[in-house]
Structure formats: structure tokens, C-alpha cells
Amino acid sequence: MKNNLLANVSHELRTPLVTIRGYAELIQSGESGPVSADQKKQLSISLRNIDKLMVLINNLLEFSNLEVNRDLLLKEKIDLRSIIEEVWKVFVPQFKAKNIVYRLNLPDAPVYVRGDEGKLHRVFANLVDNAQKFSKVGGIVELNVKNNNDRIEITVEDTGEGIPESALRKVFDRFYQVDPSSTRKHGGVGIGLAISKSIYDG
Ligand SMILES: Nc1ncnc2c1ncn2[C@@H]1O[C@H](COP(=O)(O)OP(=O)(O)OP(=O)(O)O)[C@@H](O)[C@H]1O
Ligand SMILES: [Mg+2]
Question: CB under 8 Å to 90, separation ≥6 — which residues?
């Protein structure tokens, strides 16, 4: 029942947010009338925060759905590069806003895997979101994909404060955050990695 409630609430939250985002973007584009440079800047701050809320709501939605639909993971043949490129694109404005040097290193040839595109998207989005969020202004975020025959190695690296050794296991627990004031400082509630792990385990 709790999961259903969570799924419904997050769904209900997402619908109006999509509309709010759409209109904010429309106004920013100037299509519905002239917009001053100041207003553009203010709207882009709004949009950034709308996107933060979106990530949070999508996580909650994913979190509640996962528990229910574990059996529904798809096994499609997909090129990992296209998923990762798509995720990366979403974060570029945030990298730029924090003056982060960002590098995406993909192999030239397709990297085929069998998996659930939407779920894999969530895993990478959560890892890159963390890398971006816990990076200092002017830091470096790097995503590398290496294809060694039957083994694909993907790393997401950042030059932020890192995770203390003692917390390495705990970060996959639901709602665990190394810094208890993280929610206030950076947003998020500590479920991104729990979701990612349960997708990986699933
Ligand atoms: N790249 C990183 N650098 C430093 N700490 C990290 C990094 N990734 C994760 N952590 C630590 O692990 C904790 C759990 O990460 P997780 O993604 O599950 O939650 P969150 O990012 O705090 O919130 P949410 O993902 O729900 O928005 C974080 O709060 C942080 O303390
Ligand atoms: Mg996170």
C-alpha cells in the first residue's frame, strides 16, 4: 500500500511539473513575447530547480515501481553509448553552471548490451547526478566506457570530496547520506544509489 501511495503521489507531482517546465521554457525562448536578459537568467535558475525536482520525483516514482515491478526488467539489445550520451546531454547545462570540466570518453564502435534502456538510463543519471552535485565549482567530472571483449567497464569519476571508506557500503542503503545536512544543501533524499543498486541486482 505504501508503495502504491508513493507511486501515485509522485505521479501526481510530476504531471503539473511537466506543464510548469514547458511554460517556463516557452517564456524563456521568447516565443510568447520579449524577454529581458535578467528575466532569462531568472528563468534559467527556475528551470534548473524544476529539473532538480524532476530528478527527485522520478527517483521516488522509480523507487516505488521497482519494488512492485521487479520482474518487468526488459532485456533488449541496446547500444550503451546512446543511453550514456543522452544522460550526459541533460547534465551539460549543470556542468557549465558550476564551471565543471566534463569529459565523456566513449569507444568508437557500438557497445551492445542486453538490458532495460529506461532503467539503465536511471542508473547512469544517478551516478552523473551525484558526480555533478558533489563536485566543487571548477572540478572535473569524467565518464569512461571501455569495452574489453566480453567485459564492459564504466566509470564515473569526480574531483569532489569523495566518499569516506567507512561509508562505501552504506551509500547503497535507502535514505543514507554521508552528510546528514545533504538534503538541505544539495537536495535529494538519499535514494539514488539504492535505486541504482536494486536495478543492478534486478
Ligand atoms: N560522487 C559522490 N561524491 C561524494 N559523495 C557521494 C557521491 N555519490 C554519492 N555520495 C554519497 O552517497 C550518498 C548517497 O547517494 P545517493 O545518490 O543515494 O543519495 P543523494 O544523492 O544524497 O540523494 P538522491 O540521489 O536521492 O537525490 C550521498 O548523500 C553522498 O553522501
Ligand atoms: Mg544521488
Answer: 51, 125
Q: Is the CB of residue 125 less than 8 Å from the CB of residue 87? A: yes
Mutate to test the pocket of ligand 1, among 130, 143, 175 (most ligand atoms within 8 A of CB): 130
How much is the pTM?
A: 0.78
The pLDDT tens digits for 98-138 are 999 999 999 999 999 998 888 898 899 999 999 999 999 99
CA of 134 to the centre of ligand 1 (A): 8
Domain 73-201 falls in which CATH fold? Heat Shock Protein 90 (3.30.565)
Smallest CA separation from ligand 1 atom 25, residue: 192
